[in-house]
């Protein structure tokens, strides 16, 4: 049976999925070289916008309960504006993490510093790109981290990437102290 990349293989079992956590702290930059000051600034700004989203949502709900439908609508629209700004700052941060890696030529991608949805999108794009280039067996590396810097030292991205690899029926192995996956890609048939 094939996957969205046109090939099939077996995968090993893994841990259950985890919740989303915050991006890494400044002191982790040595291990996470793509998480720069600019990335941290963008993430911080996105967090500020998120707080405004929450405030507007609460205010809108309160206004609605009081029968102030006009105020509720105004706050709801304001919330959408803050959400858009938050999303844009996070997109910019993810781009700053991914662009310098040159993953289209290096057969390696480092997901440190990305939020879960960003990491999964990047993983999918990475595998799709390299599966198209596969001639014979190609080996690629997906660096997820082992979760040492996550809340409660519980990996967030790693289990979800592994779940994705299983869903795609890709052959992979855990390497680098469970901080990465070595994935074997075969050409489409």
SSE diagram, text form:
Blueprint (H helix, E strand, L loop, with lengths): L36 H29 L3 H30 L4 H4 L1 E3 L5 H18 L4 E6 L13 H11 L3 E5 L4 E6 L4
Parallel strand pairs: 1-2
Antiparallel strand pairs: 2-4, 3-4
Helix pairs in contact: 1-2, 4-5
Main sheet record: 4 strands, mixed
What name does CATH use for the topology of the largest domain? Answer: Ribosomal Protein S8, Chain: A, domain 1
CATH architecture of the largest domain: 2-Layer Sandwich
Number of strands: 4
- Reading side by side through the largest sheet, how are the strands ordered? 1-2-4-3
Residue stretches low in confidence (pLDDT < 50, at least 5 long) are: 1-29
* CATH class group of the largest domain: Alpha Beta
Order of helices and strands: HHHEHEHEE
- Average pLDDT over all residues: 82
Strand content: 5-15%
Which term fits the overall shape?
Answer: elongated
Radius of gyration: 20 Å
| Broad structural category | alpha+beta
Distance between the termini: 12 Å
Number of domains: 2
**Helical fraction:** 40-55%
Total number of helices: 5
